[in-house]
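Why do we care about 3D structure at all? Because function follows from shape, and shape follows, mostly, from sequence. That is the central idea of this module. The next example makes it concrete: a single protein chain, its amino acid sequence, and then its structure expressed as tokens.
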Amino acid sequence: MISGNSDEGVRIEVTVAAPVDEVWQSFRDKEKLRHWHGWDIPELDAEIDHIYFQNAEEDGTTLIIHGHDTFALTAVPEGTRVVLTRAPKGTSPEWDDYYEDITEGWITFLNQLKFAHEFHPGEQRRTLFWPAEVDLGVTGKPFFESANQRGVVVEEWGPGLLVTASKMTVVTTYGFSDDELEALRQKGQPDAVDPK
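And the structure:
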């Protein structure tokens, strides 16, 4: 899934069980991007526009964002191989301090893309995010694992996807009401401190 080093850039690869043209639309249609990129925040539309449309170049199966990080989609017997090649450190010095965090974000996002296509194509999701690993008291079937992250399919969330790492927890749900989502959010809150 991940290869490369800081001299040649990091490669992140996922295979999505869907045709190339469908996966490509998930990179070029803003509404479809909302089905997998990131999580619910008020700035999500602006983030999608900034990352995928401002300073982006495309040729039909390749997308280069901000002149350096490159997504290449290729048809394979299993569907579509998506390879993200990150520019080496030093290409964008103002972002070098965040290079590893951005790489980890891309691992999460590309697995969210895979999950959306394979479990809920075209469906809207509802997400939660915590900037730490939290225990939500659920188990699931393994979906992906990298050096720093683990993703599991949680049936009771629609099925949904739970991604955990030491610096984050991301929950993707389907069909949740506001009350169900809020109840799940509360499960992830730290317990109240006993004032004794």
